[in-house]
Amino acid sequence: MNEKLIKKIIDYKLSAADTIINNLPSGVSKELRDLGRIILESLNENAQKIKEKPAGKSKDKLNNITIE
């Protein structure tokens, strides 16, 4: 897909989510935003760990597997 189109879709989804969250009671919307931040921070931390330590290739091989 086109990068501009992807950015527009993401912006649209974020603005729609923001509108929905703004229409919720203030306590609920605050909790949802805080939960979203925690999730995003966790995802970012894990992505950084994966970048620092990429998965190694397995030396074990499976050859000639018979499926019955």
Written account of the structure:
This protein is mostly helical and 68 residues long. 69% of the residues lie in helices and 0% in strands. The chain has two helices and no strands. The protein has helices spanning 3-22, 26-52. The radius of gyration is 21 Å and the shape is elongated. It starts with a helix and ends in a 16-residue tail after the last helix.
Strand portion, in percent? under 5%
Radius of gyration: 21 Å
Runs with pLDDT <50, length 5+? none
Count the beta strands: 0
Globally, the shape reads: elongated
Q: Which series of helices and strands comes N to C?
A: HH
Report the biggest beta sheet as strand number plus sense, adding barrel if it closes: none
Span from first to last CA? 41 Å
Total DSSP helices:
2
Seen as an oligomer or otherwise, the chain set is: single chain
Mean pLDDT: 86
Classify the helix fraction into a percent range.
Answer: 55-70%
Structural class: mainly alpha
